[in-house]
Amino acid sequence: MSRETALGVVGATVAMVVVGGAIALRMLFGPGDEDAMERVHKARMEDEIKLEATYRRESEFIPSTDGARVFTQTWYPTIAPKGIVVVLHGVNGHSGLCTAHFNVLLRDGFIAAALDFRGFGRSAGRHGYIASISDLADDTLAFVRRLRAQHPDQSIFLCGGSMGGLVAVHVILKAPSLFHGLVLQAPALHIHAAARPPWIVEAVARILYAIAPKLPILGAVDARPIDPNDAAQVALARVKQTDPLFYTGRMRLGTGLALLTATEAIAHRMHEVALPMLVQHGDCDIIVRVDGSRRFHAAAASTDKTLHVYSGGGHVLWVEPDAIAKPFFEDLTRWLQERV
Q1: With helix as H, strand as E and coil as C, how does 217-277 read?
Q2: 46-338: CATH homologous superfamily?
Q3: If both were cysteines, with which of 4, 71, 213, 321 could 122 make a disulfide (CB 3.0 to 4.6 Å apart)?
């Protein structure tokens, strides 16, 4: 065999391997809808079950604008409701992890409502995968409009934590007139330059995204080792280990790019937010830096806006010790009570 022929055979073999690999990646991690019925019947959180002993809960699946199945739940206080608070969960979580919020809101007389974003909890979609934050905002609006039709006389507040805060801002920019106020808790509104990969890595990721957007390839949101002396970290680690609906895998390629695209999309639109708003953030949050909340608070056009920064607080303020968690919830309920 001549050298030219040998090189041709090697080249053809390499090409076949590359093409075959691309096809395999697309089959396993390519775009497309998934029903994900295996998550629908997973056990509920113990805290949810306990809460239902006191408060009435309704749950249903609603269709999104493009037909995806979205799980929703609504909780009712034992007294005449003062308003509705829609709580939006963070990345990898689901609405069942919002029980601490539900408990506080219900106790204070608010209807508490939440949905599982696509790809999370009991909603359709590959676990941990987000195609677009705009899709999640549209699903939220579909749910809120149903709540508005069912409770036309109630004020509706939107409360989003971490990624839920990012979704909340996109929701408000789409339909501000539906809401009476906005609460953001450690919102993921800004990705620090130091947290972004080198441009060449990002460019390759965008190319790979076209083939395998669901590929779990990116680093975890919080890959720190657990500090056994940090009660908040230990509590979160326990949830991740025991909750069958919590996504524990690596971040999917499409999810990472969706978050990046969504933060870039609002970077120059923060001044358009004019609703009454409360922003809450811990100054020791290393997952989402407090700088983004300060920047948003300063840029928003709202004349009624409040920023609370909690000294020593991490990313998930409601699982912190009482010295932080108690004022965190007190600030939330006081702010709501003053605006209904």
Answers
A1: EECCCCCCCCCCCCHHHHHHHHHHHHCCCCCCCCEEHHHHHHHHHHHHHHCCCHHHCCCCE
A2: Alpha/Beta hydrolase fold, catalytic domain (3.40.50.1820)
A3: 71
